[in-house]
Structures are given as structure tokens and as C-alpha cells.
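[job 4471] stage=fold_predict status=RUNNING
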Amino acid sequence: MSATDEIKSRINIVDLVSEAGVKLRHAGKNYTGFCPFHENKKTPAFVVWPESGTWRCFGQCNEGGDIFKFVMKRENLDFKDALNKLAARAGVEIPAYIKETPEQREAFDNLRKLLEDALIFYRRHLLANVELLNYLRSQRGLTDASIETFGLGYAPDAWDSALTYFTKRGYSQRDLLDAGLISERDSGGYYDRFRNRLMIPIRDENGKMSGFGARIIDPDDIPKFLNSPETPVFSKGHLLYGLDRARKPIRTADQAVIVEGYLDVIALHQAGYENVVSPMGTALTEDQLRLLKRFTRKVILALDPDTAGQKAVLRGLDAARSAMDREGELGFDAKGLLRNEARLQADLRVASIPDGLDPDEIVVRDKNEWAHLIEKAKPIVTHVMETLASGQNINDPKVKNQIAAQVVPLIEDLPSALERDTYRQQLARMLRVDERALVGMQPQVPRIRRQKRLQSSERQAAEKSNVAVSISSNKKVEAYIIGVLFEKPALLYRLDRLLQEYGLIPLTAHDFEYTDYQMLFGLIREALEQDKTEHHEFVVDAVPESLQSLSRELVAQTEKLERAEEKMLEELLRGVIKLRRVAAGENLNQLRFLQEEAYQGGDLRAASYQDLVLQHTRLLRDLDQASRKMSLKRMD
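[job 4471] inference complete, writing C-alpha cells
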């Protein structure tokens, strides 16, 4: 471990920032507060990520970095002085972000207008499709009023119907791409994303158009459901279908019900059950639960027991989310749901749908049956217990052990001692075993309990150690890039040209999370600009004493790898794309959270985040396109 790494592992960035006078509060796994580097204090746009030990301001200064960059900026120090200051604090012996140009707000408003126009376009085609209308009426039981209310439409069976229609009306291909209405061919050109599909408009909780969900008409088409791609206004993990119409009914009933499909939502609303929403075929996220929590603390998952119950738990509760997170099937992650339940202080329950029926089939069979199913919803742990035990021989000791092995960890994760005792007793009665046997089969629990009782200083040290482990993946990528370029500075020029060929900007210090790597990269860039790339010694001689140990470690690591330059260049490109994608994804998630939080607080500056959201969304799309082009090039 280098000296800088050791300093970072010993200093908690949350403590460091708090001691500088920044009042931080929890925002999921991260912390937010007002930026200490500029005067505007209207919006808490300063974010701290404890796991990576980094910070960023999404407001006026638009900067970020690690603990070294924070001290450098806060106290106007150079890297060497900041390093010495933090080393003394940590007891360790010693051996710049680019401002981004915001997009015009007109482009963002134009995006929503285009989506509204697309709704009308698809609606017109549905009215002309008598066969599909008859299917919705007779097979799905939808009334004309429901079809109109929910704005259902039809995407024609053509490759360029929407593309041609909207470009003739003055929209650019870039507009259509940003709205998610068209896709880009790898060979060049564009085509309609949605073809021969039932189109379901998706609005945010305020009724603003966000995107579309599309269901197949031809049973041989794939995938069955196709949503809009990630755009500045559409993110599956942050939206709930039907919430714009369900807000008031949820408040009135003090209860939200979650089902799997769009048509299930429509059918239930039509039947009078208007407190129903859908997460659009993905695992239920904390952001979606937080969204619902504005209106109620009681959330019921109405799940098909065959898909969301037995399959999930039998595949293993820890892997349930990844196993179930695919289009058209609602994810059931018992551990994740319980964690969210505790963190959000919500009441999450599960209602199983019988006979393998869909919700719309239930209300057609017996309208009142749906209400009875929801009333009988059970807590998550109880649902898992009964699902695992269903059809099993409870008298078999091995079956008892298998069930207990999956349920006991859930029970032990509950924050309430009373709930833990209650569920242990319930499980013991079901398995007909002594409750003490269940406690005895959890050898890790005492260790965990002891860890929770560690004194404050010891617990903080353990947390800091965990931080060092959690950030190792990205750090290895950064270390490899710097090590290769430090040894072969001339490769930076070729890497920049390659990035531009893939539609990406050249490598900058902005791409590195750690201040020490930013400093070393600056020296490499300087060597390139001074046309001294053939002289590795130029870079070595320019390294300050405080970074010489780190630079030697990086070079030693890369020298062990025998790579042709072309191979190194490909690995460098892949590494840069990975770093940018991780950073853009984290920033985008946090921007959306800050935007939502500002909106809830009535802060008019919430709209200012939209430009940054648009920019990060485009960056993610460009990075994905570059990755696909790389894959195709390797295949050639």
C-alpha cells in the first residue's frame, strides 16, 4: 500500500469534511450538504461518497476529488503540503476537474414536447388499427375510456415511420435520439426504436411525459417488453408507471400496491383500484420506494408466487435481484426489501396471486377478490418462510435445515429485537424445532453483534479499512493507465486520437479520481505537449519527491506485464471507457436525487440540474456506443 493509500484508509472523508464546517446528512449510502467553496447556499449540491472517499459539488463550483483535493482547495495548499498535513493527521510517515458546458434549457423543454407529439403520433396509428383495438377491448377487457385516459398507441410496423414523420416536422435526428424514439445503427444511420408494438406512455409522478413502454403484438417478436432507453427524463429505477394517476388514491387508501405489468395497472384502475403502480419490469429500487413514501408508508407487492416467490428464494436470497432483474418480470430481493424497509421506516408486505393468474384476470373473474388478496398481504419474512415450505416435507431434517439457512439470515438482519424474536418463534413453530437451535446455526451473528458493540474509534477504523477494499477495482484501472503512460508517454498521443475516433474527448485529469494520479497524469501530459515523449527520463525527473515512491510502484507493476503496444492501447481505451462510465453513472444517480430533493423542497433551482442530467445521459450513451464499436472491431 502506498503512503497516499494508507492516508486515505485512515482518514474518514465524512469526518474531514464535517470538521471543516460542512453540515452533512444521510442521503442513502452517501451524504449531502452545502458546498463550502462558493457563496450560494440555496441548494445542498455538495455530495460525499464514503465508499470511494471522494466528494463533488454539482453546484456553482462544479468540482470534486478526494481528501487531498478537498484540503488543497479548502486551505489553498499545493499537493505536497496537503499530503504532509494529512499524513501528520493520519500518523503516516511520508517516503482538477474540468467545468462542463451546460446544455440549453430549450433543448430539455423540446424533449418533453417531442414526447407529447409522439404520444399523438402513436395514438393516431392505434385508432387506425381496428384489429388491435378489438384485441384491447375483447381480450384485455379495456374500455375506450381507459384506452383514451392512459393514452395507449401503436408503433407502425416500419423501420422509419417515426423518423420520417418527425424530421419532416422540424425535429432533428439528435432530438429523436435524445428522446429515445430512434436508435443508431452500428453501420451508420438511424431507425425507429419501436416497431409493431402497443405503445404505453409513461409519465413521471407530476404527469410530465418521460418515455414509453412497448409491448409486442406479434408473439414471435422479442423482447416482450421494450422501454425507452435512459434519457434525461426517463430512468426506469426512478419512475413508477401509473403514479401520476395513483397519487391521490394512494394517499386516500394510505397504501400503494405494486404489480408487474402496464396492462395490469390499467385494468385495476379501470376496476376501481386506483392505488396501483408498476416498476416497469425491474427490481424494485430504493428510489422508487422513496418516491412512494411521499404518499404512504405501506407498500404491498402483489406478486405471482411462481415467479417472484419460489424461483427467487430457491435461487438464493442474496442473488435474487440479479436472477429476477430482467424485462417483464418483477424482481424480488427479500434482503434488499428488508434493508429498504428499515432504512425508509416503511411497511412492506407481499400479497400472492393464486392460480397463476394476472391481476387483470383476477378482477375480471371477481372484482372483490382483489381486495381480499390485498387484505391478506403478509410481511416479507413470513412470505419467504411459507414460500420455501410450500410443498416440502417439513419432517425431513435436511429440509428444515435448508429453510432455516435461508430464513434465519433475514431475521437476524432486522433492526428490531422484538421483530427478530417474533419471527424466530414463528419459524421454530413452523419447523417444529427448538428456537435455540435457530440461534445456534448462525455462528456469524455473535461476531457481528460484537462488531456493533465496538467502541467508536475501533468501529471507524474497521469502516475505513472496508472503504479501501471497496474502491480497489477502479483504483487498479487508474493505476494501470498511469503506469503504462508513465513508462510509455508517447502512447498518450495515440490514445487521444483513438478516443476521438470513437467520438470521445481526449484523456484528462478529470478522468482520474485520485489526486496523486491526477498529478502524475499532468506530468505525462506536459511531456507530450513539450514533444519530449521519447524521453521517459523527462517524466521521471519531473516527479516531485512526494510522489516518487508511488511512481516507482506503478512502473514496477506494469513492467511485469508483457504486452504489445497495440494490446496496451486497446486495454487503455477499455480502461478509460470503464472509468468514465462508472463516474458518469454515479454522478447521474446523485444528480437525479439532488434534483428530486430540491423539487420537494420547493427550490426553483431544481431545474438547473436538468442540464447536467442531459449531459451525463449523453455521455453514457456515447460510452456505450464506443464499447459496441470496440467489440465489433475485435470481431472483424
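[job 4471] summary: Residues 101 and 621 are 18 Å apart (CA to CA).
[job 4471] exit 0
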